[in-house]
Write a structure and sequence with these properties.
It is built from two helices and six strands. The chain is an alpha+beta fold. A hairpin with a 4-residue loop joins β4 and β5. The mean pLDDT is 92.
Length: 149
């Protein structure tokens, strides 16, 4: 199942009490735009008192990776429902893009914990830098003046 990253922007419908409602934006990983909108309403209904009947979606955009050919490290915070309860988890993946890391996460959770797509909530996906590598420039057996500071 190929995943895309969507930015879904929505709000509560304007009323007399609140003519300019607050706008909410979420980054959602889903196989298509329909599932992304559905997940948006699912999370917004849990977090705020906004449901699909009393709200509107302003826009849905696909977010593409800036450098899809460069390897990166990703840290993913998730919350998932297992047979025994709800658990928080942090996992790290080394992939080419955020969507590849999320796809690897779903595969890993299905394999290790038998968790389904519907029971996994992705809280945050962060890219952190690769460890610093020092390149060796000079030869091993060359004498040089020592630095004392």
């Amino acid at each position: 199942m190929p995943f895309n990253e969507y930015q879904v922007v929505g709000r509560h419908l304007p009323t007399e009490n609140e003519p300019v409602p607050k706008i909410y934006r979420m980054r959602i990983f889903a196989p298509n735009e329909v599932v992304a909108k559905s997940r948006f309403w699912y999370f917004l209904r849990q977090l705020k008192k906004v449901k699909k009947a009393s709200g509107e979606i302003i826009g849905v955009n696909v977010i593409h990776e800036k450098k899809p050919l460069k390897i990166k490290n990703f840290g993913i915070w998730i919350r998932y429902d297992s047979r025994s309860g709800t658990h928080n988890m942090y996992k790290e993946f080394r992939e080419l893009s955020r969507t590849d890391a999320v796809k690897a996460l779903y595969q890993d959770m299905a394999a290790r914990h038998r968790a389904r797509f519907r029971s996994i909530h992705i809280l945050r996906v962060l890219k952190f830098p690769l460890p610093h590598r020092v390149t060796k420039v000079r030869s091993t057996f060359v004498a040089h003046r020592p630095t004392t500071f």
